[in-house]
Amino acid sequence: MSLYIFYISNFLLLLCLTASLMQSSKIINNKIFTRPGVMVLASVQLISILLSFLILIYLFLISDFNFDLVYFNSHSEKPLIYKFSGVWGNHEGSMLLWILILVLFNFLFALSKRISERFKDITVAVQSIMIFGFVAFLFFLSNPFALNQNNFFDGIGLNPILQDPLLAIHPPVLYIGYVGFSLVFSLAIAGLITKEVDQQWASIVKPWVFSAWAFLTAGIALGSFWAYYELGWGGYWFWDPVENASLMPWIAATALIHCVLILQKRNVMQSWTIILAILTFSLSLVGTFLVRSGILNSVHTFASDPGRGLFILLFIFFILVFSFSLFAYNSEKINKTSSMGLISRGTGIQVNNWLLITILTIVFLGTMYPLATDLLLNKSLTVGPRYYSTTIAPIIILFLFFMFISPRLGWTDTKLYKIIIQLRYLIITSLTITLIISLYFELFNLTEILIIFFSLLLIISSMTASINFNKQNILVRTNLGQNLAHAGFGILMMAVVCNAVYSEERIYNAKVGDNLQLQKYVFSFDKIEQVEKSNYNSLKAYFLMKKDGKLIDTFTPEIRFYSNPPTITSEASILHKFFSDIYLVMNVPQDQQSISVRMHIKPFMTILWLGTLMIIIGGIISASIRLGRFDEK
Amino acid sequence: MTNLVKSRLIKFLLSLIIVLIAVLIIIFNLRDNIIYFYGPTELLKNSDKQGQIMRLGGLVSVDSVQNETDSIFYFSITDGDNEIEVKYEGILPNLFAEDKGVVVEGVYMNDGRFIANKVLAKHDENYMPPEVIETLKKSGKWQGE
Fold this sequence. Notes:
The structure holds 2 protein chains of 2 kinds. By secondary structure, chain A is an alpha+beta fold. Chain A has 18 helices and 11 strands. In chain A, helix 8 (199-230) runs antiparallel to helix 18 (605-624). Chain B is built from 3 helices and 7 strands, in the order αβαββββββα. Chain B has helices at 3-32, 40-45, 130-138, and strands spanning 34-38, 53-60, 66-67, 72-78, 83-89, 101-108, 114-119. The longest helix of chain B has 30 residues, at 3-32. Classes of the chains: A alpha+beta, B alpha+beta. Chain A binds chain B through residues 159, 161, 231-233, 297, 299, 358, 361-362, 365-366, 369, 379-384, 386-387, 390-391, 507-509, 559, 565-570, 587-592, 594, 596, 598, and chain B through 22-23, 25-27, 29-30, 32-37, 53, 55, 65, 70-71, 90-98, 121, 123-126, 129-131, 134.
């Protein structure tokens, strides 16, 4: 039985390889390979990969340990959902998922109408070259359907830290983001080849780039949320290289979506948009390379086979060389000269583009520097999180200012003082609130005050944008997606600053019966229990949280002992309130009598996630409004 | 020089200066925030590193863990050849144990003691931080592959 599955699945991979090769040939305008058509081949690509993915899921569900991948990453006693998510909790499976999304985007794009044949052919062909590359990589270097000769009775199991419902959806969502940019890249290449990077090109690209961006944002947010409650360190962002790897394409993509909008409206910045599209996809690949190659050491590292890292590295190199030579050759022909006013919305967006690139550079240097010294000087070091916060914070102030002012400006030259007079009430309101906040919390750090002030300006300004200014010709139509996302970003920044400033932490060693104090709350250590579950045993502590003698909530932090593979994890117990989270984690160091409890008050966490959610929803709305009412004027 | 060339040249030089300043600021900030990793032997050789924030890694020496109060711990980190005494105030991770790999972050004091403010968490029992493996390889005490 296993042998048949082995043959069928490998046949499917080869089928996809052949179809992709035929599809790729359409990049040259030829008369030979007109049949089978784009749609037929795209369907073959999709169906073959979809079937092999389903087969892999089936193998995990029935725990067929004749397959290496299932043996190394699953266990018969694992709950069903983790057998399922275990499919992409490893290198080969996650690569297959990556390819599935790649062919899915390819298929969906092939479906789209009102696009010239030639342009569609080239886009699909470029996409198919990538499909070919990745399927070949999967087939030869990381085949998920490799059989083993032994009859294993049971598998090794999935890292317990990955056994979490959120992590079942985090990789697919993140991958839709990453891979979505592959289509944007293909569209950019097609634009370069046909020399048609214009307003129509921008409207074709827009829904794809926005949805990829929204998914990437959601993927990063899910990962961050998971780290917050699962790792038990009380933080949500650690400037870990793995996190940075996903942040870098996000920053580039944020610049890109704004350029696509300018291009669609004003038909300017063609070259820069193309460069950003190439950059975004390259950074997505770099992200995959960093995370999967084993260079970085983390939960994300599945396999450290140098051949695999080398392949992705070569692939990135090939893409960069190919696309930039094409760009150098054709860029003169895609640029149209047109003008924008000096003080205009376009300039504001351009400035913020540069600021984003600066932030990108900061993150890139901080992430790559330790890798470089390790490889070249054999010296191991880490870049402290302070590097990022102190370098990026001043840029964020400028960034927020331009985010606030740009949508208020017209596309042509606008008088700045007129705008400021118009916005005087808004500015006064924000100033007052900032003053109240900083006096109330005794906050006197200029950078933090400025970030809060401009965030407030941005939030209020974006939220009122739909109500005001109808008399003026500056903003005739509102754009819900844009306003929602911008307000969300303001909320996010404000929450980040407040959270960093007002977080409080207490560490206690506790025995049953102890009363522990955290601000105005008292925690009574009630009892500790042993709990047995199918895949782990745990120690569960009960803390009763009281305020003024009244019981408010019960906290149950846990320590879990997994046996397949043997691992200990701490499960935090969190009470989410609107203005602050209360967060309890416990540890039992070996050879210790009492347990250690770490308690945090984390202000503005709910608001922080709310801001992120607004950004995601804003992105989805912008993606679904096809004609992009950035501004009707 | 025509006016066009002139204005282009000015624009170019101006942006070059801005970029240079930005890069300099970034690099200086980066240098200020670098945390080096040392093994015990390496650290003893570099006594000029006292007072800096750094990471120290190795094995927790057997029978070295003591606690002064509930949350102040003393232990030694060894690479087999040399060891350094560490003082740590806080919560020890679940997987902290004698004869297991550990990485701490803190300051190497001039009395030869290491004041740690972080004991870095690990993910599973068999996991050994790669820096610690390197350290043990250097001192010839590594027994793995």
